[in-house]
Sequence to fold (875 residues):
Amino acid sequence: MDALLTGFELALTPQNLLYAVVGVLLGTAVGVLPGIGPAMTVALLLPVTYNVSPSAALIMFAGIYYGGMYGGSTTSILLNTPGESSSVITALEGNKMAKAGRAAQALATAAIGSFVAGTISTVLLVALAPTVAEWVVVLGAPSYFALMVLALIAVTSVLGSSKLRGFISLAVGLTIGLVGTATGQARLTFGNPLLADGIDIVVVAVAIFAVGEALWVAAHLRRRPLEVIPVGRPWMDRTDWGRSWKPWLRGTAYGFPFGALPAGGAEMPTFLSYITERRLAGKHRAEFGKGAIEGVAGPEAANNASAAGTLVPLLAIGLPTTATAAVILAAMQGYGLQPGPQLFEAEPELVWTLLASLFIANTLLLVINLPMAPLWAKLLRIPRPYLYAGILFFAVLGAYSVNFQWFDVALLGLFGALGFAMRRFGLPVLPLIVGVILGPRLEEQLGQALQLSRGDVSALWGEPVAVIVYLVIAALLLGPLVLRLIPGRQGPERLEDDIDALEEEVRS
Amino acid sequence: MAVTRRHTHGTGGRAAGDVRVRLPGHQASATLHGSGPRRPRRTGRARAALAVVLVAVVALAGCGVTRGDDGGENRRLRMMIPNSPGGGYDQTGRAATRVMESADLTGRFEVSNVIGASGTVAMQRLVNEEGAEDLLMTMGLGVVGATYTNGSDARVSGATPIAQLIEEQEGLLVPADSPFETVQDLVAAWTADPGSVRIGGGSSPGGPDHLFPMQLADAVGVDPTEVNYIVYDGGGPLTTALLGAKIDVGTSGLAEFEGQIAEGSLRVLATSGEERLEGVDAPTLVESGIDLVFTNWRGVLAPPGISDEVRDQHVALLEEMHATEAWREALETNGWVDAFVTGDEFEEFLVEQDERVAGTLTELGLL
Fold:
């Protein structure tokens, strides 16, 4: 505790505070811009670190990381243009809320949720990092595979009213996920080396969400009466708070462990959080798909918590689990610092300054972003032709800046047309996005698990965590069927119990 | 300020074609800053990221100085990086350009990351810009292999070799409690049942971490096609797999594992270079009785079809860079081994590497 206070003392020097502010502003900016992520920003700023002290550089990088996680939500909510893959899910409900005049509330619940999640996770990081990181390496490919199967099965609950359409959408998403040479074999690349690395999820999401919608709006602009976006209240009211706090906590519970797990990432927890909130929404369930605040609060908390989780293995055993963490590691090594158990002893001041600055970065983000929410919300008052022109500009910029290839802009157009067609034929968007994100990872983990066992399939249930997850899946699938046979019991309630159990499993 | 004026062509000398497509910042720069010849040129990426929040410029001010007293005769070059920011080629390429800029050997370098298929896309672009006198590309062994595994016609040996800059040894890593104490233990287990030894590396087939165990297998009499090589997405996941003992042996450059090695959670059985690696307590393969020297390397290429005169200028430029104190420091900071080779010698080396890689991949049935 003393160590942490000392850390605060050092982090609160004017100079370090300035770096924290620069970091969160930069991070927010790159989060807002689709295509430019925190990893690339930190990489480009690496040369800067040669001129400043290690603690200042790390404080700035941590600010960028946290800021990036936060900033992505703003464009997701306002413009339906997710800036990062981890804020794709936020766009689902967030943008619907914005269209219903509740943009300020969506932005506020995202900001406060990020703050709550970030703070809790940083506390966990402080408490756990020195001791707990050893066991994160225990989970292997079979466990990750099982977790992803679980996630994929959970999608069936969000397939929408028409299961057929849901499965079509999922299949399209999985197919998009097949593109590339990840397996060593070129699939669906049509001989084009630009497709060899697969299709970036940001390009797909921006195209389906933003471009698809812009086309849809354009197609109906003159045929339908103008839907005026109502002027909403500027702040969250009592009901909003009441509906937000539990999702914040649950989102944190998903985000932190997934962030700490080497193959966890920030997308899976946002996605599980969304499905959980949808299941647990009770009387507000009908609002999902039309702008439910829970669907913003949960995923936003989850992605911020995962950012803090990432720092656990990074600081404790020098293990980078995301691209951003890898670049931060490179920066630390540039200073001759080697993260690992010895770092806490060798450089206690640096470590605690960094941890203290995480709290500061979180507070700064809240202070900077919360008052901005009502102002941002006014953006939607722009007449639609101009608004959508702006969105399209942003989308193209984003797709381009992923790889700086015209090719990605062409893909943006292609998938934009797909997004338009999906709206026309009533195909749900979420299964597609889930397919694109999960498909390749599922395959990678399966391939790895089988290669490690030399093709022995039983390896897939060779880890305890995997077994538990499969049991949960079995309960999820069979539970409702069995219960239907027992008279007097209602299926759906039991199903919710199962979801609770499932949550417990995933958390533990 | 000693400014070397070796060559005096402006930006107009660049190859026509895909300039507009290649760099978004280009057009932006025309409108934002005007296109005066003395403006510093940044990459599209840097521009996009930095233009957004000008605050960063304050931080960068220390290293971003415009040179402007030379009557516009500054030599401007473009450096293409075949992977993403933060990656190995990126670090080497940017370190080299930074040294050249700050030592006033050239004007501003325009650094651009051309990402795709482990460098195949960048290699193709280099070949397409045949005759472009202002273009350089940082590359290395991984790009050689990638052009083969991705079935590209743009071969490394077809470009104009300028210089090899650095070398990196590969190491054989095992978890602390691995049964393997020496390379010979590994070889014994490997020979008995090749598939039972799970080897993980941070590069896809054709990359150095993949080529190394294959050539090692060949050297100790194990059929490379029997080797159980598992691809991990870079150093992080590979570390995880090693620490969790999911794999038996990891093959990789050792820079990323310094911490784990120092702390004792990972051990090094052997390193692949000609001499022992400083700071690592492990024998070389040759010392362990295996006749194999394998090094990963990075260097600089220019497009095919440039004149000998321009090539010599590029070579001289890199020679000057290599002689600077700043480059020494960069080598040290990054743990790179100096391996400076230019001209014909580098060309022979490239041809040899090209053949060796093709040979290994053919043997594996990957071509």
